[in-house]
Amino acid sequence: MKIKSSIREKYMELCPASTMKCSSFEEIDYKIRRAVEIGHVMKTYPQREIQYHNLRFIVKDERVVDMFKNDQYIAVSEYKKSVHECKYYKIVV
Question: Is the pLDDT of residue 3 over 60?
Answer without folding.
Answer: yes
